[in-house]
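Fig. S4 source data, part A: sequence.
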Amino acid sequence: MKNLFLTALAVISASIGIVLAADHIDAPAVTSTSSDITDFYAFQSPESSSNMVFVVNTQGLMDPTASATAAFDENVMIQVNIDNTGDFVEDLVIQAVVNDGKLSVYGPVKPTSTGLMGMVETDATVTTTDVTEYGKTASIGSKNGIKVFAGPRDDPFFFDLVAFKSILAGTATGFSNPGADTFAGTNVMSLVVEVPKSMLGSAATLNTWAVTKRKI
């Protein structure tokens, strides 16, 4: 049975290249939940020029203690949208849901519906793996050239928040090099999906964005 999901949060629309965006601090009711996307990355696999990698990070600013008990919300679906026709409407989706500590990734597949509402495309190819626990060896699932991972990871985003606030306050004129990493020592819950480019269509440019959808 397909469950209906409603979009909770959307982050970045961008052409494929080395793409990233960050949004670490939101309203208290959203921050540190599975629906709170901190970063979205899309890039060519460094191991194979024939593959694309998509990374969606959620639940930012976790310290090691919080990371040890962090989990994905089973009522939230993480979805990567892929537009390969240039109309900024998703032609393909990659959907990730977690149940009882196991990650299931569906697609890439043409979605039944587009926009805010959506359903898990359970008829699509599914790639599964266990969610990796904090401090444990990464569990990576693979099927038909697709590889998937989910679990806590060090936050890769670098930002000097103190310097930024000083610039806004007029007490500094710019950032120093290398600056201070405000997010050092904090973790995120990360979803990583690597797929063959052949599964994404033949377009030279892809528009991609990530959303989370909550079950209703």
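Fig. S4 source data, part B ends here. The two ends are 14 Å apart (CA to CA).
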